[in-house]
Amino acid sequence: MQNYNVFAGAFVDRSGERRKDPDWLARAVQSSDCRFLPVWGDKCLVGGDPLHAVLLERRQVGDLIDDDHLIFLGLFRGHPAFAFALSSEVRAPFGELGEFQDLRFLGTVLPPDEANLVAHARALVLWHATQRFCGLCGSSARPESGGNTRICVNPDCAREVFPRVDPAIIVLVSDGDRCLLGRQAHWPEGRYSTIAGFAEPGESLEDAVRREVYEETNVHVGDVQYHSSQPWPFPSSLMLGFTATASKTDIRLNDGELEDAQWFTRKELRSGFPKLPFRISIARRLVDHWITLEE
Ligand SMILES: [Zn+2]
């Protein structure tokens, strides 16, 4: 088992101090050392065998990039790396180098550092697409700090906004011998996963764990322990993984979000039913971790 979650890992030197240095950024994008990651709609460019993320050089991107809208991701393998958006309404370019694919299918395929880089690129490109106007005064907003913030163009407002990250809890609840898994109606047949949901304003993560588990399954949770986290750029979640101990185990589907929820033993989880969460997800890592614990 890998020791971190897919998409996670500090593989990019984010070089936050460079974001505020327009001269350095301008030199970097002109340099032959620079690499560019296209995001076409919400898809990322991959190619080769084995599959890898395609990192373009300046001479390859031609006039497809607009220097004012490049997003500085940081230094990747020593190269300045920038993401840029391509409209999915135009035909996908770079067909000779690879094809644009959904990151949900790439997370466990790409090398971990590339999965981390393209998740970062995808999240920021999609964030910019939803932040064209100032939410306070309604004027246009433009990229700032190498595309790591946006700022209102109205000088009387000049409101700056930062990329959005939505914290969501995901929790493996156990009563010792069994763990609690649920499924939504639209999931593939037989697949179950850990309980998850977004934290709400004014709520601690532990509170969110207890509330979500109760709302979805009626199970009461006592002790809550942090496990690990995973960036989940679909489009902007941060999954915060927990393990928790049930203090009351009767299941009732209170809010109707789940189609079913059940308690499963380790033996059942090894038997092929239920189908376990996909390997890309922190849910699978929580389940795998629990299975390996002493019975
Ligand atoms: Zn404004």
Which tags fit this structure?
binds zinc ion; globular; six-stranded mixed β-sheet
Written description of the protein model:
This protein has 295 residues and is an alpha+beta fold. It is 20% helix and 31% strand. It is built from six helices and 15 strands. The protein has helices spanning 22-30, 58-61, 112-129, 205-217, 266-270, 282-292; strands at 35-40, 43-47, 52-53, 71-76, 79-86, 99-101, 141-144, 149-152, 160-161, 166-174, 178-183, 195-198, 220-232, 237-248, 260-265. The strands form three sheets. Strands 1, 2, 3, 4, 5 and 6 form a six-stranded mixed β-sheet that branches. The chain starts with 21 loop residues before the first helix and ends with a helix. 36% of the residues are buried. The model has no long low-confidence stretch (mean pLDDT 95). The site of zinc ion (ZN) has 8 residues, from loops. Zinc ion (ZN) binds at residues 134, 136-137, 139, 152, 154, 157, 159.
Short description:
The chain is 20% helix and 31% strand. The chain is an alpha+beta fold. Residues 134, 136-137, 139, 152, 154, 157, 159 line the site of zinc ion.
Order of helices and strands: HEEEHEEEHEEEEEEHEEEHH
Which molecules other than protein and nucleic acid are bound? zinc ion
Give start-end ranges of low-pLDDT stretches.
Answer: none
Largest sheet: 6 strands, mixed
**Beta-strand content bin:** 25-35%
In round numbers, the mean pLDDT is: 95
Gross morphology is globular
- The percentage helix is 10-25%
Return Rg in Å: 22 Å
Termini gap:
19 Å
